[in-house]
Design brief:
Strand order of the largest sheet: 3-2-1-4-5
Radius of gyration: 16 Å
Largest sheet: 5 strands, parallel
Shape: globular
Bound molecules: adenosine-5'-diphosphate
CATH class of one domain: Alpha Beta
Number of strands: 5
Length: about 170
């Protein structure tokens, strides 16, 4: 990984499963890059979450959706985020906050991470209002019933979801 440091010389990472990436994730990515100048989007392999898409597929979705955004690097990891942070010199972790329901979990993780590695600061970013209720799992559920998700995820993701769920009726716009 080439070390792309942001304006104030801090490495910034946005970790997630991204199974698959949604316009909500993209909204957070764009806001973080605007704030820090550069960002590592870190794809967590996450075996216990049993992702629908392989690591390679998830990375490809992110790559194609961010091809025109400068300052973005994509990396992947397995294991403890704080070990990755220590190893790479990460100082800032970006997390997205949607409805209040995200808060409990994120608050716990932030406290734990701070204990594990005090050099890291977690920064929460809220997406545009229309993405408040958007999650990768609801997207998968909607497609599994043949619903239209074209305004919530990039086109490539709609196409691949359609194939995974064998729903040729799903609209691709
Ligand atoms: P994880 O398994 O780490 O929660 P996700 O891919 O589900 O992985 O989410 C990664 C991060 O993006 C989390 O901080 C999550 O809260 C945030 N996120 C997910 N969907 C949205 C959205 N629609 N708007 C803003 N943030 C989001």
């Amino acid at each position: 990984m080439s070390e792309k440091r942001c304006r104030n010389n801090r490495l910034v990472v946005y970790p997630g499963t991204f199974d698959p990436i949604t316009n909500g994730h993209l909204d957070i990515i764009k806001r973080a890059v605007k704030l820090f100048g550069s960002l590592i989007v870190l794809v967590v392999r996450h075996s216990e979450k049993s992702p629908l898409f392989s690591l390679e597929e998830r990375i490809e979705f992110i790559r194609s959706a961010t091809v025109n955004c400068k300052g973005i690097e994509i990396d992947s990891f397995d294991g403890l985020l704080m070990n990755y942070a220590k190893e790479k010199g990460i100082r800032v972790i970006i997390r997205g906050l949607r409805a209040v329901s995200d808060f409990d979990y994120e608050f716990q993780m932030m406290q734990l991470n701070r204990r594990l590695y005090s050099e890291v600061e977690t920064i929460f970013i809220m997406p545009r209002e229309e993405y408040f209720f958007l999650s990768s799992s609801t997207i998968k559920e909607i497609v599994s019933y043949g619903g239209d998700v074209s305004s919530f995820v990039p086109k490539l993701v709609v196409e691949k979801l359609r194939l995974k769920f064998k729903r040729s009726d799903v609209i691709i716009k």
